[in-house]
Design brief:
With about 290 residues, this protein is mainly α. It has helices at about 5-45, 45-50, 65-70, 75-105, 115-125, 130-140, 150-170, 175-185, 190-200, 200-220, 220-225, 235-240, 250-285; strands at about 245, 250.
Amino acid sequence: MNPTRHRQRPRLSLRLRRLPLNAAAVVTVAVCLFPVYWMISTAFKPSRDIQSDSPRLVPQTWTLDHFRRAVDADGFGLFWRNSVLVTLGAVLLALLVALGAAFAVARMRWKGRRQFMLMVFLAQMAPWESLIIPIYIISRDTDMLDRLPTLTLVYFMITLPFTIVVLRGFIGTIPPELEESAQVDGCTRLGAFRHIAFPLLAPGLMATSLFGYITAWNEFAYANFLIIKQQDNRTLPVWLSSFQNTFGTDWGATMAASTLFALPALVVFLLLQRHVTSGFAAGAVKG
């Protein structure tokens, strides 16, 4: 009997067994990407094609008028700056605090460590929408409404538990012997962590940064409830609602603005994608 034929049969059988999984993966990707494609294609369609009773899947004619109208809308540059400041502030603050907390949990043994992590997990599981009213009342009573630092602190609070969990798991994958060897050579504990462990944390830092960025960049509810009177302090998700008026919704400009709004998140993901998978995997496995 031909041994090559025996080797080919298991491979063919394996491919046949994987066929349903591959088909399910293709369908899932198509379902997830189709709304994004529809948003982008609508942004380039002329208004007459958007309002057509039989919209086409692929635009026959293309236009940039909707993008010009979105960029020229009142407050585009201002709200873009507000979103960038709030997002970067929340991400950097969460990384700074979470790095210290994750190091303390992963490397040190102290009373209440398990209870602390339990509280972090409970905070991560809490639905943040349910805290809108308490946060609004606290912000009102402390005269913190209509201020960008308030949004920054709220987004920091939302992203902090997840950041601690992932970084704690990632620090746990780094052998402590590396830091101990550096301490034997004369480094302090902080110096050993900074020179040895911190450079190895790049994937975890990138993964948590991406999560925090997307969370803060896309958040709408808190930005809409906490910024009421000072319209100049609103962010881009709230600005998108400005294309709705008493005469209806300008779908072309809305889709063009949404496309511009999604571009920074896409760029950040493409820049960090090599580190994201390993960062999430390390944070999920060890701990």
